[in-house]
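Quick note —
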Amino acid sequence: MSKGGYERWSEIRALLRLAGPMVLSQTAFVLMGLVDTAMSGHAGAREQAVVGLGVALWIPVFIGLMNVVQAVSPFVARHYGAGDHPAIVRDTREAMWLGLWTSLVPLAALPFVPGLLRAFGIEAELAEKTAFFLEGIGCGLPAALVFRALAFYSASVDRPKPIMTIAFAGLGINAFFNWVLIYGHFGAPALGGAGCGWATAIGMWCSLVAMGLWTAFALGYAPFRWWRGGWSWPNWEGQKRLLRLGLPMGGAGLAEVAAFTGIAVLIGRFGPVQIAAHQVALNVASLLFMLPAGIGAALAIRVGQSLGAGDPARARRLAWTGVAAGLAIGVLMMGPVLAGRHAITALYSSDPAVRELAASLLVLAALWQVFDATQACMMGALRGYHVTLLPMLLMLGAFWLVGIPLGAWLGYDGGMFGHPMGVFGFWIGLLVGLALVSCGLALTLRTVADVASSRCKKEA
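Predicted structure written out below.
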């Protein structure tokens, strides 16, 4: 093997060592949605529709805020690469405060949820149950975002394994309380699909307690424990530094995820079966997405560490190696999804109509994994370079100026097909949006990496 080939293989192994636990921790998060969807589905299509609508509203908000908090990761990664331990402590603490206060913002919107859903043609009873689901989620959101701040800090100092362990423990807690609250065991009220929201909140708080104790006392964090230096209130300059990088990250995440999950609201007029089938297929696609998403998060860290160490050539090599890995993953996932789509959907629902429709949607999901996997890796690499504004604009344009309007045209009117396509039309719009995003991010990453390398050569 040539020297260049050996270096690339070494970088891939290092990237996968970091990405592996992150992939599994994010998989646990998506499996939580799978458990919610499956357990509520066996309580009936209506209860599954409650979860589908609730997820459509809370996941975009959570992903958007989580991406804002994730701004700590590129900063801590650079500090770690440069050996600046006090800066790691400072920015981690600021990220914890950021997660806490931003979690309170969505709570102000909860009273308006039933009216919003009714405005989209959702029946009143379904709207009220969905609002109750979201009230439970709102109680757990502060814990979830502070947990994420600590998780990004831990991964950025090359300690991702605790995140994985705690995430799967939280998954078990969520499943147990789903069983209790959906069906009314141990004397608890039978809340149906709405019980999933309250079970998720309990899991969120348990996960935060575990992560806080681990990072506060485990030996590996001794040089840069987040509580070092004693108590301190948030610093406005520190908050602004995180927000300048994090707000576009949150905007990009919100633009993408809202486009995917918001379809549950847009197709509400087509009834519970289409809502439930969309949720099943989307959950499967989200589960598959965790592998490239984990690699993207690891790329942001590895690229940031290389830049912090003053090695932009290595950062560029890492970035494109990760993108190639993402592309390969997307291609390899197509076959299993297409072959096993009927068996997969049978795990989610006992309703034959929901299962058949969801299996058909997975054909489109298999196609878009190629674009989704590569864009996730390119997005992560760009975050390592602290480039977040242009990716956000690309996401907004591709999904909300092209993908969603195209989906609405095909879904409601039929477009060139001559008859309304329902949920299929919206999924075709998403596929087109993903393709556009992938092309735009590829051009952006090439330019950013070239500029960083050229600047380093001039300074040398």
